[in-house]
Amino acid sequence: MQVRSSNYSIRPAALADLNGARAVMLDTVYRDFGTGYVPRWHGDIIDLAGAYMDPARHTLLVALDSDGEVVATGALDSRGPAHPPNPVHVAERYPSGVTAQLRRVYVRPEHRRRGLARRLVDELMGFAVADGGYRAVYLHTDPAVTGAEPFWRSIAKVVHDEREDHGGGQGIVHFDVPLGSAGAR
């Protein structure tokens, strides 16, 4: 499928966008992650409004193509990484309430390499800064997903790479995004 236009708009999701956002997310967990939907990991995808729209300090952004179709997503919430499954030192470094966690930054394959993920992250960072209550921005990624690790390394600092742990942990890479970096890229 070819993209007809390079014109995209990014905005907070409206209720009418939720089915499109959910489709982008579910397609990603099935195609890119190869896990399919796992309730303990992906429950927020089913209840996007409850996870990202209802809480005041959370947000869900969508990128729309020129036809108004949701082609990318990005979310932020105030939940730090839990231990387990994450390493205890990562959970302690990023406590809930004062940590903005970037989540679900997904772009449909045919729309990648057009700057959408970076634009979504910039908007999410702006949201975190405007909130005023966040002390840190955290995210994690699965390095097996094509392009994910190099993208995050280009804008964030690795704080823990589970592939270096004895036994490999979950194989996840944990990142810190400088809170003052909104719009600096």
Protein architecture, described:
With about 180 residues, the chain is of the alpha+beta class. The protein has a single domain, classed as Aminopeptidase (3-Layer(aba) Sandwich), CATH 3.40.630. About 30% of the residues lie in helices and about 25% in strands. It contains six helices and seven strands; from the N terminus they run βαααββαβαβαββ. It has helices at about 20-30, 40-45, 50-55, 90-95, 115-130, 150-155; strands spanning about 10, 60-65, 70-75, 100-105, 135-140, 155-160, 175. Strands 1-2-3-4-5-7-6 form a seven-stranded mixed sheet, with helices on both faces. The model is unreliable at about 1-5 (pLDDT under 50).
Describe the structure using short key phrases.
single chain; about 180 residues; alpha+beta; Aminopeptidase; 7-stranded mixed sheet; 6 helices; 7 strands; about 25% strand; disordered N terminus
Using the coordinates above, name the CATH class.
Answer: Alpha Beta
CATH architecture level-2 label: 3-Layer(aba) Sandwich
The number of domains is 1
Mean pLDDT: 92
Q: Which parts are unreliable, with pLDDT below 50 for 5 consecutive residues or more?
A: 1-5
Order of helices and strands: EHHHEEHEHEHEE
Strand-residue proportion:
15-25%
* Number of continuous helical runs: 6
Based on secondary structure, the structural category is alpha+beta
Terminal CA distance: 30 Å
Helical fraction equals: 25-40%
Biggest sheet: strand arrangement: 1-2-3-4-5-7-6
CATH superfamily: Gcn5-related N-acetyltransferase (GNAT)
The major beta sheet can be summarized as: 7 strands, mixed
- CATH fold-level topology: Aminopeptidase
* Alpha-carbon Rg, integer: 16 Å
